[in-house]
Design a protein that fits this description.
alpha/beta, Rossmann fold, Transcription Regulator spoIIAA, 26 helices, 23 strands, about 30% helix, globular, metal-binding
């Protein structure tokens, strides 16, 4: 077994290799750790007896960099890396990022835009006869026609653009091992068409066999012709010529025996028919120009995501079809253990020397305990990539990894920075009945409420926490992954265990918003669940004698969000004494349901028609900036755009220099030379200048309120007492951290890896 998978011919020579069986091409720096896809896949294939080499961040301007390890015997495996290359390189405002966390010294511009497509094309140029297999989250999220935020258009599946032979999506381990064995046995890649979790190009109308059927979903259902009802009192001569029975030729009567089938036989027949049915989605040429059909295709696609009942799907791209097999079955616990227990070096490749790699430093003392998420948040891509069914590791496997970190990872001082996954507290949670799980077609197990069939027992996770912190040499085990607090409140014992032992001063949670209209488009619980969790968190922190704080995450400009929604969120933040340091504007990522709302202004959570619900969406740059500014109302740079927005909304009463206003009327840098005496005379209520006065009305918003306000066409000057003076705001704690970047007041380290659920 190689200490590191080779990245050069010299390393291959040292291992005695004349050729690699598989060469993995990645857009990330090579770090031999199970949190990085290229290492996990490489070690998995190595354990099967194959020689695997890695080409990391190659120069994509020519094919020479793709020949550095020679010609692979079986195939090139191409990935963009742990992140989608476009998300990695551009902000939500489409601005180029100044650094790259997955590159040595965080150096930017080390990967191309749409890296999977570019790398696959260069690999094909290097050796035209070598099969190309693409994967990673970038390929997974682009397996069908998808809206591309950065070019603001619907793009084709990545398969025809990359010219790849096969795309593997989701949890790829099982499909990748089977594929590699079959290629090694001499089977042609064009003949491998039966692996779950794979997609490929086929001739138009292709089916795996004559016994397959097609479910046509290429159009939106519309009411058919309705025949008028005849009056029973109307004397109409019966037209027997139209009756097929009367005109049928007299033929010999055929008597067929009636066969009574058992329930098991009927179910088996129905399942066989279901498993051999492919769902035809609207073609690329249709969805690229028709928002309604795009939204319809998105809804159909997501309804076919449960591996227990999902059918194959097909979508026309010109004269050929993109065929998608059903998603992969979840890995069993022993399979998960096998993947994570392999002999990783747990360090960056030696060729990077002492280079600073932020992504590695973030996770080097953390442990991944599970995969998947059943939350179904519409803005998140975890479900599309990892699936809705939780795949957990065993306790012994997790505890062994903690010991490996203690014994092998340089710089370890006794603190595990995180022990979680996509979500901190879904470890070993599952549907109570397997039969229900495999037949379920819900998009979320926790929205609009927690499913009665979902097991929410946190006892196994509590046991894991206790055993982890009991390991000799472990001083602290922090939980830094995003917490699903609506699940946590079902287990007060878990919340107490978490708060007492596993919070390093700050705990990240993600309400995402406060307003029901926006939350319904996110498929997130109401703010009441946050309040319930906060009460538990504060109570158990007090009992533990610790000063600890919740750091809530929010999203600006999410589809379904209005200016009034963002104002109410800002007022909630002020009432609760939050001053956020870092905020996030919604970024439409490929295939997410929220992205469908952004692009089409339709709601794919419900049946889509031309007349179905319209989702208001902030698309213009100014509106998106305004929504983001509401989240950071305390920032002087945001005051001018917020003043303009509040006046236009008829909420000039929230502008003033008192503590009860949202933003001040002036600052020293924009006072325009007014003397202090003149400024002091510009008082209204708690200090609102005349230019911001508005007429009193019935629809008024208090801190945290939700009443609608009329739009003002002009600024009016009648006096209106400040409505905020009636609202009690919390006293500002002397040492309370007010932003994500603040240092925790309690000792024990800070969360090292971001997560939001």
């Amino acid at each position: 077994m190689a200490p590191f998978l080779p990245m050069s011919r010299a390393e291959m020579d040292a291992l005695g290799w004349d050729q690699c069986d598989v060469i993995l091409v990645t857009g990330d720096a090579y770090i031999d750790h199970p949190s990085f896809g290229m290492a996990l896949v490489g070690r998995l294939l190595e354990a099967q007896g194959y020689r695997v080499g890695i080409i990391s961040q190659p120069d994509w301007l020519s094919a020479d960099a793709f020949r550095i390890l020679g010609k692979p015997r079986l195939y090139y495996g191409v990935t963009a890396g742990n992140m989608d290359s476009m998300v990695n390189q551009y902000t939500a405002d489409r601005k180029i990022r100044s650094d790259d966390a997955y590159t040595a010294n965080a150096e930017p511009n080390k990967r191309p835009d749409r890296a999977v497509t570019v790398y696959a094309q260069r690999a094909r140029e290097a050796y035209p006869d070598v099969p190309i297999v693409i994967g990673s989250i970038e390929a997974s999220l682009r397996r069908i026609a998808h809206y591309d935020y950065w070019s603001d258009k619907v793009r084709r599946s990545v398969l025809p653009d990359s010219k790849a032979d096969l795309l593997i999506f989701g949890n790829a381990e099982r499909a990748l091992v089977d594929l590699t064995h079959r290629l090694a046995a001499g089977e042609a890649i064009k003949d491998i068409r039966d692996l779950r979790g794979t997609a490929f190009m086929v001739p138009s109308g292709w089916l795996p066999g004559d016994d397959w059927g097609v479910h046509n979903s290429t159009r939106v259902d519309v009411p058919g012709k309705i025949d008028p009802h005849y009056s029973p009192y109307e004397m109409v001569q019966e037209d027997k010529t139209a009756c097929a029975t009367e005109n049928a030729s007299k033929s010999a009567e055929v008597i067929k025996p009636i066969r009574i089938m058992s329930r098991e036989e009927r179910l088996a027949m129905a399942k066989e028919k279901h498993d051999k049915t492919v769902v035809r989605l609207p073609a690329y040429d249709v969805v690229k120009d028709d928002p309604v059909m795009y939204a319809h295709a998105s809804r159909v696609f997501h309804l076919e995501s449960n591996p227990g009942n999902a059918r194959a799907m097909v979508q026309a791209h010109g004269e050929r079809d993109v065929w998608l097999n059903p998603p992969p079955l979840p890995l069993a616990m022993d399979e998960m253990d096998g993947v994570y227990d392999m002999n990783y070096a747990r360090a960056p490749h030696p060729s990077y020397g002492k280079a600073h790699i932020p992504a590695w430093e973030m996770i080097r003392f953390s442990v991944n305990i599970m995969r998947g998420c059943f939350g179904g948040c519409t803005f998140c891509s975890i479900t599309e990539h990892e699936g809705r069914i939780i795949q957990s590791r065993s306790e012994p496997s997790i505890l062994r990894e903690i010991e490996h970190i203690r014994d092998k990872t340089k710089g370890f001082t006794g603190t595990i920075s995180d022990m979680g996954g996509p979500t901190a507290n879904m470890y070993r949670l599952a549907c109570k009945e397997k039969e229900i799980e495999v037949s379920c077609r819900r998009l979320s197990c926790v929205y609009p409420s927690i499913c009665v069939n979902l097991g929410t027992d946190h006892s196994k996770l509590i046991s894991l926490y206790r055993k982890a912190r009991a390991i000799p040499g472990i001083k602290k085990v922090l939980i830094s992954s995003g917490l699903r607090y609506d699940l946590a409140v079902r287990s007060p014992e878990y919340v107490k265990e978490l708060v007492t032992h596993h919070v390093g001063g700050l705990l990240k949670i993600a309400p995402e918003h406060t307003e029901e209209g926006t939350l319904s488009k996110m498929m997130k619980p109401g703010i009441g669940a946050y309040d319930e969790f906060k009460e538990m968190f504060d109570r158990f922190s007090l009992e533990a004698g610790k000063k600890q704080y919740l750091i809530p995450y929010f999203i600006a400009a999410h589809p379904g969000t209005t200016d009034l929604d963002m104002l109410n969120l800002a007022l909630w933040l002020k009432k609760n004494n939050f001053k956020l340091d870092q905020v996030q504007t919604f970024m439409p990522t490929p295939m997410a349901m929220a992205t469908t709302m952004y692009h089409t202004r339709k709601n794919p959570l419900r049946k889509v028609t031309a007349d179905s619900e319209v989702v208001e969406t902030a698309r213009s740059g100014k509106i998106r900036r305004t929504h983001k500014a509401f989240l950071r109302y305390q920032d002087p740079a945001n005051w001018p755009i917020l003043r303009e927005a509040l006046v236009n909304m008829g909420r000039g009463d929230l502008i003033g220099n008192g503590d009860k206003h949202l933003i001040p009327a002036w600052t020293s840098s924009e006072s325009g030379g007014l003397a202090a005496g003149e400024r002091s005379r510009q008082t209204h209520g708690a200090g609102t200048p005349d230019k911001f006065k508005v007429t009193p009305g019935k629809n008024r918003i208090a801190l945290g309120g939700t009443a609608a306000a009329p739009k003002a066409t002009a600024v009016e000057s009648k006096v209106r007492p400040s409505i905020l003076s009636t609202i009690k705001t919390k006293a500002k704690p002397a040492a309370a951290p007010m932003g994500r970047g603040a240092k925790p007041p309690a000792k024990g380290g800070t969360p090292a890896r971001s997560g939001r659920r």
